[in-house]
Automatic annotation (TrEMBL):
Its cofactor is pyridoxal 5'-phosphate. HAMAP family: PhnW_aminotrans_5. It catalyses: (2-aminoethyl)phosphonate + pyruvate = phosphonoacetaldehyde + L-alanine. Coiled coil: none annotated. Belongs to the class-V pyridoxal-phosphate-dependent aminotransferase family. PhnW subfamily. This is 2-aminoethylphosphonate--pyruvate transaminase. Keywords: Aminotransferase, Pyridoxal phosphate, Pyruvate, Transferase. It is an enzyme of class 2 (transferase). The keyword Lipid biosynthesis does not apply. InterPro entries: Aminotrans_V_dom, NH2EtPonate_pyrv_transaminase, PyrdxlP-dep_Trfase, PyrdxlP-dep_Trfase_major, PyrdxlP-dep_Trfase_small, SP_NH2Trfase/AEP_transaminase. Homodimer.
Length: 376
């Protein structure tokens, strides 16, 4: 087998051997075991979001990557006479804006700087000025930079003004405790290959049933029709079109392992420890982070390139890659940065090994950071 590679990315992520092994058996889409797995996954996702079917919440699984799930929600729940407000402070907010444009939804995009959070006060001011807005979409963990938008407070503002609240919690759900009711979220979207630590293959939307029902007949596409997808899953327990069978089997195993680890609370703690080890190690190496610590989440961090002209990201990336560590390029509008994720099957000792490899590569490349470590 090839050398083991550890992914310090925002997804796909490193997964456990047992999650991969759950995909070794071919599975028919009408197989009893498979249909039961789908049922179990849908129900357990509600539990992870601290809601129940009795309280009026439903899980819809959608084939494809996370974007397919977001697009399914956006293009299905915003009706012809509705008006969507998109609160954007990064590439994923912009992606929702693009969807709204393609599907010709009535919408408005309010942009914030990439290194600033969406403030509840700003959201309130916009909603007060635009009473025709019906839906609000926002990203929880903006993976572009790694910041966390204050979803709970934005949710409270949305409810005060009577708006439907759509949250892309792709890179945070499963790695951050989120109570959908308390956060007043009507649609929460995430995917199989983020903090639940499954493999790519599908997205899921946890939906307030009363809002989901309003989506009947108003989708802009067949395959991304959120209501029909739900109706299919509810009707005979099956997907309308070929399901990602093995990805679902892996996901069921991943959910079991999340439970064994101690649930979201324990996972959040491990990710935060990863983040603390990374921050400490990188700061010793003189790296500066793009975001202010107050708005930085524990999912992924953006590190500014060293000012030393000897630094070449391609070589830096390749040399880390050759040592078995995959990091992630930056995606910032204004600054040159690379990203390191703390999520997936990676543990504090892996982060230490990554930092040691970064040190080695810096020395090999003779790159110095302006803030040089002291006290050696
Ligand atoms: C990963 C991610 C997505 C989905 O990306 P895909 O490549 O479609 O899986 C959407 N939003 C955020 C915030 C993400 O981190």
């Amino acid at each position: 087998m090839n050398q083991k590679k550890l992914l310090f990315t925002p997804g796909p992520l490193s997964t456990s051997l047992t999650v991969k092994q759950a995909m070794l058996q071919d599975m028919g889409s009408r197989d009893h075991e498979f249909v039961n797995a789908v049922k179990q996954i849908r129900s357990e996702l509600l539990t992870l979001a601290h809601v129940t079917k009795e309280e009026g919440y439903e899980t819809v699984l959608i084939q494809g990557s996370g974007t397919f799930g977001v697009e399914s929600v956006i293009s299905s729940v915003v009706g012809k006479n509705d008006y969507l407000l998109i609160l954007a402070n990064g590439a994923y907010g912009e992606r929702i804006a693009k969807m709204a444009g393609i599907h010709q939804l009535r919408h408005e995009v309010i942009r914030f700087a990439e290194d600033e959070i969406v403030t509840p006060a700003a959201a309130a001011a916009i909603l007060a000025a635009h009473p025709d807005i019906t839906h609000v979409a926002c990203i929880h963990s903006e993976t572009t930079t790694g910041l966390f938008n204050p979803i709970m407070d934005i949710g409270a503002v949305c409810k005060k003004y009577g708006k439907v609240f759509i949250v892309d919690a792709m890179s945070s759900f499963g790695g951050v405790q989120m109570d959908m009711k308390e956060m007043q979220i009507d649609f929460l979207v995430s995917s199989s290959n983020k903090c639940i630590e499954g493999v790519p293959g599908f997205a899921f939307a946890i939906c307030k049933k009363s809002e989901l029902e309003k989506a009947k007949g108003q989708a802009r596409s067949l395959s991304l029709d959120l209501y029909e997808q739900w109706a299919g899953l509810e009707g005979n327990g099956q997907f309308r079109f070929t399901p990602p069978t093995l990805s679902l089997m892996a996901f069921r195993q991943a959910m079991e392992e999340l439970g064994e680890e101690g649930g979201i609370t324990a996972r959040e703690k491990r990710y935060k420890t990863n983040k603390a080890v990374l921050d400490q190690g990188m700061s010793v190496l003189g790296f500066k982070q793009y975001l202010q610590p107050a708005i930085q989440g524990h999912i992924i961090s953006s590190f500014l390139y060293p000012e030393d002209p000897a630094f070449n990201f391609e070589r830096f990336y390749e040399k880390l890659n050759n040592r078995g560590f995959i990091i992630y390029p930056g995606k910032l509008g204004k600054a040159n940065a690379f990203r390191i994720g703390n999520i997936g099957q990676i543990f504090p000792e892996d982060v230490k090994a990554l930092v040691a490899a970064i040190k080695e590569v810096m020395e090999e490349e003779q790159v110095t950071n302006t803030v040089v470590a002291t006290g050696r």
